[in-house]
Amino acid sequence: MPILAQVFAALAAVLHVAIFVMESVVWTRPTVWKRFGVASQADADTVRPMAFNQGFYNLFLALGIVGGLIVGGSAGHAVVIFACLSIVGAAVVLATGGRTYFRAAVTQGVTPLVALVIAALF
Predict the structure, then answer these.
(1) What is the dihedral of CA 90, 106, 98, 54, to 10 degrees?
(2) Where would you find the membrane-spanning parts of this chain (predicted)?
(3) In terms of residue numbers, what domain contains 91?
(4) How far is Cα of residue 73 from the mean position of the Cα atoms in its chain?
């Protein structure tokens, strides 16, 4: 896997660790749940278990990328590719949720997509 693809995959991992922190660690802060389009404290409390769970999905995908980069070789790179494909797939699903989610989908999906394209081309 080309180094540039590895860099973009690592950037995707960093972003997804940050998302994990927001969704699973500091969700109770109004500045955080408002960032996710949640309108009120009551709504934030209602979706907190879902956000907590979703945050861990993001963490596990990030750990897949990091682990794959550390292991290296064909097995490690296969894990990186799988994690990047999963993130891009999740971004596509998010984008289907409507216009309000498009920016978040692009933010989430662009770095792993670039990693995948570079890995495929080189």
Answers:
(1) 40
(2) 52-71, 78-95
(3) 3-121
(4) 23
